[in-house]
């Protein structure tokens, strides 16, 4: 942007470009409303995905527990929808009164999409009302399938609404290159602005992340109800629900880093400066915190499974091996969290000859990080496999051979990951970047093929006993809480990284922020704001959970009422 | 302690946990610095590693009911059993003193400069002006490499430029250990390290040499870099030739630009 254009813009700003909000200021108000709105939006998008999948399992698998589980969550959605709308309204009022010039600019480009957004939100809300209130009426046969279709539509509307909102924020981040500060916004074609460089990567990343978030929230709700349960039967129901939530969250989490990698790559492709600011520049410390939090997710998810083995007859065969999995995860977490540029005092800096450690610095680069995270994903998958197999013994004649092949696949995948991880140190950067693709492909192939073999091998497997749902110590439930809190925190943190790399631009290199809040906040301040948003959201969610228990009694189904009462998830 | 008692302790989860933490601390604080070419591990990293190991240890002792019950035995005994009254009293004193010491260590004033949280990769602009002329950095290659027949000449020129201008800070070995180096914080860049020019495109190095400390971006300040703005003293060709010399002398290969297939010369992704 030329200095002349900047001056013109500054002059234009003198005519009420910005408003002010009492006490906390305009930026903090927008920050809190946008963040909490987004978290609720993730809730109302993630949970319906969960609900429609569990309803389908209930319909096609004939297990009524899934149907009741699905309904219980849809009930929570009604309140969560109101909260989403209220926070969304606060955000829009905030933008139009505190950032009127910027808001006018966005509406000049995106007005038709905003009308479509409002219309779809209306349709989505009424689909939800039909979905929930029609539950008991459309219960059997074709009517039930019709009801399930409503659930699918609910997800469809929600996803389109999210895609529309994503186009606005991605435009702010990566406006098409032919748009300059002097471009009249009314001349910008709507689709041209929507289909910007980071729109689709964010869409994909957020859809997967919403599945993870939905699962985690379900897990947290189940753990809350488990801890408050009065009877063993109720405990068994919520233990099972927590397991399902955790399973879905962890399964989707495994693919989430790949979507994130694509988004990161698109940001670099769009603007190298933006990419370096995010990953190597002053925002790089956020990634060390992110590494910590993701390590917490992996460790906690595995911990929950390992404790869960205590309630599965036959699991004692596998328990001695979990400590080796733990060692891999801890070493992976150490490597992943090792910063490239270390915080050190002057004496330590002098001893190291700079802020790179001469030995540990090797763990701070991409080759080491990719290797660590891929091995952690493989380890988590192995945990799931052991858990899944815990109370069965395969009877197919090729069971032994199949297990050996599975073991070989794990060894091969780990070998490929390690080979390219080490080789990455000896090749130039451009080749090294390509290696991560081979590592990811090795891990994904292993997951797919091992799962296929496992499903085939489980046919007619001998049962070693049924899972004793509910026989879980309370600390396992706190693990589920940790997962939900960590996911929420990560959303706030990474959302700040994505949004903060715009720095002092409302729209990157097109419209500058000339308000007194233009400076990018320091990381300490940002962390406090993010934590505050997480706290507000979780407090409100706790209220929603409490309402869920208040409105109706819990929906657990006593064993006599169940169809196929001996069924167990994942077995 | 007798051999059977030792064996009992070695299989007891509580003492296993203590043992793992002690061994991890010894490895991080004393063994890692002894490795060839290594150095002391900064306190911030020691803390980070120890917290990770502690979490791992807590997971180990509590992911199994029986192990968790055994792990808690000595803790509960110390807290409740009358025969361990003395141990309890000693622990009370030691823990209180330890907390006091840590608190004192946190608030006591020292003469040392506080640890600096500094980002090492400033983001380069897409375009710079060099003595009034615009240069696009994205996709830019070292123009001197287009004349392989004259490389020896350029290298000799670059060597001269380096020894006349860069030596006092970046050193004879290009390792950031020049005569003036100890006077700077941050230290001058060590070009032999695989984390500096080895990770960068030549256009990035050109930008850093041409614009120096004053040209560093606004975000991530204060940079405190003493690097001069060399465009005031060197010509464009001199800067490119000294860059050739840096890569030739250290043996590193400059980072190349990624080909996007769009025919625009490609863009760098800048990943590590």
Structural overview:
The complex is a heterodimer of chains A (571) and B (272). Chain A is 72% helix and 2% strand. Chain A has helices at residues 3-13, 26-61, 64-98, 100-133, 141-173, 190-194, 199-228, 232-270, 272-279, 284-308, 322-337, 346-352, 366-389, 399-423, 429-457, 474-500, 523-551, and strands spanning 392-393, 462-463, 505-507, 511-512. A two-stranded antiparallel sheet of chain A has the order 1-2. In chain A, strands 3-4 form a two-stranded antiparallel sheet. Chain A is globular and about 80 Å long. By secondary structure, chain B is mostly helical. Chain B is 49% helix and 3% strand. Chain B has helices at residues 3-11, 13-34, 43-62, 65-80, 85-107, 151-165, 167-170, 202-211, 236-250, and strands at residues 127-130, 133-136. At the A-B interface, helix 8, helix 9, helix 10, helix 11 and helix 12 of A face helix 3 of B.
Shape descriptor of chain A reads globular
CATH topology name of the largest domain in chain B: Cytochrome Bc1 Complex, Chain D, domain 2
What's the total helix number of chain B? 9
Helix and strand run of chain B: HHHHHEEHHHH
Instruction: Tell me the number of strands of chain A.
Output: 4
Q: Bin the helical content of chain B.
A: 40-55%
User: How would you classify the helix and strand content of chain B by structural class?
Assistant: mainly alpha
Q: Could you name the ranges of chain B where pLDDT drops below 50 across 5 or more consecutive residues?
A: 261-272
């Amino acid at each position: 942007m030329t200095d002349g254009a900047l001056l013109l813009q500054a002059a234009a700003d003198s005519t009420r470009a910005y408003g002010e909000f009492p006490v906390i200021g305009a930026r903090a108000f927008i920050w809190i409303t946008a963040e909490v709105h987004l978290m609720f939006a993730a809730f109302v998008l993630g949970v319906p995905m969960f609900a429609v999948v569990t309803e389908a399992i209930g319909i096609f698998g004939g297990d009524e527990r899934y149907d009741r589980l699905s309904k219980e969550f849809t009930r929570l959605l009604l309140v969560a929808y109101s909260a989403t709308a209220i926070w969304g309204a606060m955000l829009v009022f905030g933008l139009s009164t505190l950032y009127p010039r910027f808001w006018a600019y966005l509406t000049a480009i995106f007005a038709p999409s905003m009308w479509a957004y409002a219309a779809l939100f209306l349709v989505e809300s009424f689909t939800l009302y039909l979905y929930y209130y029609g539950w008991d009426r459309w219960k059997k046969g074709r009517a039930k399938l019709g009801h399930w279709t409503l659930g699918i539509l609910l997800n469809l509307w929600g996803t389109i609404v999210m895609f529309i909102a994503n186009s606005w924020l991605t435009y702010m981040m990566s406006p098409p290159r032919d748009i300059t500060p002097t471009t009249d916004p009314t001349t910008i074609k709507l689709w041209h602005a929507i289909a910007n460089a980071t729109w689709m990567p964010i869409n994909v990343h957020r859809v997967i992340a919403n599945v993870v978030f939905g699962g985690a929230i379900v897990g947290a709700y189940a753990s809350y109800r488990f801890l408050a349960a009065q009877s063993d039967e109720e405990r068994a129901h919520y233990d099972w629900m927590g397991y399902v939530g955790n399973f879905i969250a962890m399964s989707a989490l495994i693919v989430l880093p790949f979507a994130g990698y694509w988004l990161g790559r698109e940001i670099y492709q769009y603007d190298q400066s933006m990419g370096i600011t995010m990953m190597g520049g002053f925002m790089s410390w956020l990634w060390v915190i992110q590494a910590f939090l993701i390590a917490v997710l992996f460790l906690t998810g595995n911990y929950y499974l390992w404790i869960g083995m205590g309630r599965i007859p036959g699991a004692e065969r596998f328990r001695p091996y979990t400590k080796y999995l733990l060692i891999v995860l801890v070493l992976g977490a150490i490597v992943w969290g090792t910063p490239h540029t270390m915080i050190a005092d002057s004496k330590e800096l002098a001893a190291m000859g700079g802020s790179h450690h001469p030995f540990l610095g090797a763990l701070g680069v991409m080759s080491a990080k990719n290797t660590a995270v891929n091995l952690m994903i493989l380890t988590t998958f192995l945990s799931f496999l052991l858990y899944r197999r815990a109370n069965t013994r395969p009877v197919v004649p090729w069971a032994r051979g199949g297990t050996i092949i599975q073991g070989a696949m794990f060894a091969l995948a780990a070998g490929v990951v390690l080979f390219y991880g080490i080789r990455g140190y000896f090749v130039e950067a451009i080749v090294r970047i390509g290696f991560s693709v081979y590592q990811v492909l090795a891990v994904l192939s292993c997951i797919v093929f091992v799962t296929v073999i496992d499903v085939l091998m489980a046919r007619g497997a001998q049962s070693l006993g049924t899972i004793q749902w509910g026989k879980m110590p309370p600390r396992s439930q706190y693990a589920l809480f940790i997962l939900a809190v960590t996911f929420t925190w990560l959303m706030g943190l990474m959302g700040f990284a994505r949004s903060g790399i715009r720095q002092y631009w409302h729209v990157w290199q097109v419209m500058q922020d000339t308000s007194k809040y233009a400076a990018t906040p320091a990381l300490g301040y940002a962390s406090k704001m993010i934590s505050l948003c997480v706290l507000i959201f979780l407090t409100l969610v706790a209220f929603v959970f409490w309402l869920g228990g208040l409105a109706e009694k819990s929906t657990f189904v006593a064993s006599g009422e169940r169809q196929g009462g001996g069924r167990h998830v994942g077995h | 302690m007798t051999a059977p008692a030792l064996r009992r302790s070695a299989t007891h989860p509580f003492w296993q946990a203590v043992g793992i933490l002690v061994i991890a601390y010894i490895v991080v604080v004393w063994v890692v610095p002894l490795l060839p070419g290594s150095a002391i591990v900064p306190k911030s990293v020691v803390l980070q590693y120890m917290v990770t190991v502690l979490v791992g240890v807590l997971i180990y002792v509590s992911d199994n009911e029986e192990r968790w019950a055994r792990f808690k035995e000595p803790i509960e005994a110390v807290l409740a059993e009358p025969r361990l009254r003395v141990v309890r009293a000693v622990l009370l004193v030691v823990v209180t003193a330890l907390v006091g010491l840590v608190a004192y260590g946190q608030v006591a004033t020292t003469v040392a400069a506080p640890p600096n949280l500094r980002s090492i990769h400033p983001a380069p602009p897409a375009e710079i002006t060099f003595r009034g002329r615009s240069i696009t950095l994205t996709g830019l290659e070292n123009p001197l490499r287009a004349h392989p027949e004259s490389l020896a000449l350029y290298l000799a020129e670059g060597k001269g430029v380096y020894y006349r201008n860069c030596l006092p800070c970046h050193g004879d070995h290009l390792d950031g250990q020049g005569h003036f180096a100890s006077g700077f914080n941050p230290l001058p860049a060590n070009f032999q390290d695989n984390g500096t020019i080895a990770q960068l495109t030549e256009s990035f190095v050109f930008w850093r040499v041409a614009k120096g400390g004053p040209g560093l971006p606004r975000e991530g300040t204060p940079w405190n870099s003493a690097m001069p703005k060399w465009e005031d003293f060197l010509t464009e060709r001199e800067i490119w030739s000294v860059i050739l010399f840096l890569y030739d002398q250290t043996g590193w290969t400059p980072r190349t630009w990624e080909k996007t297939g769009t025919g625009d010369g490609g863009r760098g992704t800048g990943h590590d």
